[in-house]
Amino acid sequence: MPNKLIAAAAVALVAAAVAPAQAEPVKNVVLVHGAFADGSGWRQVADILAKDGYTVSVVQEPLTSLADDVAATKRVLDLQQGPVLLVGHSYGGVVITEAGNAPNVVGLVYIAAFIPDRGESALGLLAQAPAANNDIRATKDDFLYLEPAAFAADFAADVPPAQAKFMAHSQAMVAKAAAGATVTAAAWHQKKSWALVATRDHNINPDLERSMAKRAGSETIEVPGSHAVYLSKPDDVARLIERAAKTSAQ
Which of 1, 71, 128, 188 shows the greatest Cβ crowding within 10 Å of its Cβ? Predict the structure, then answer.
């Protein structure tokens, strides 16, 4: 082989050796619900993502303790083939912040959610801003729920009234201990994150959502929706998730 061809081949081999590996496309999305709701609320978002070629799984966490909820999420993460985008709504943001430390999670998406740092809890974060409502109640055994008469206004003001009424009387109560449990390691310090601020949220103060997203360095969008923005604006939510999935692969 002529010297010039040998040299060219050597350069090509060196270039291939030092070239960065192409990131694997993110096609797995795991959705985590928050307090006062369950995983069925993700249906419209999940359908949009599935139509666009994503494999979608929904965690049905028990809301009995943060440890239990993280374990339920990791159980679903362990079933995924390839990299995962982890999405959380409301208290689900606390769950994904802890569970997102799993090695197959490449990005985090917060939808009207808490974005805690190490040592912070959902209840602790709520205390850092003016209350969005005063309608959270506790059962005798310390599970929290929203006063049903106020549920629509606080949680789902832009959801059809009949649906909001049903949600009020089928809400998933969260253990006060879970809402008060602190994160031990915040995954957003090491992984990319995105956030959606629901500007008409009456469950988490939108200014608190903004400040948490800014602190985490999350790529943030604002949508004029209620706390149940994933129900009322599923296209906006799915669009952000898909953008995050595509960016995570870069």
Answer: 188
Q: Which residues touch 72 (CB under 8 Å, ≥6 apart)? A: 59, 60, 61, 62
- Ordered by where they begin, the domains of the chain are 24-248 (3.40.50.1820)
Distance CA 40, CA 172 (A): 11
Average pLDDT over residues 52-56: 98
pTM score of the predicted model: 0.91
Look-up of token digits 């004029």: 224
40 DSSP assignment: G
Block residue for tokens 């201990």: 177
Buried b (16+ CB within 10 A) or exposed e, 132-145: bbebbeeeeeebbb
Contact present, 39 and 60 (Cβ < 8 Å): yes
113, 195 Cβ separation under 8 angstroms: yes
239, burial (CB in 10 Å: exposed 0-12, middle 13-18, buried 19+): middle
Containing 7, the helix (H) or strand (E) segment is helix 3-18
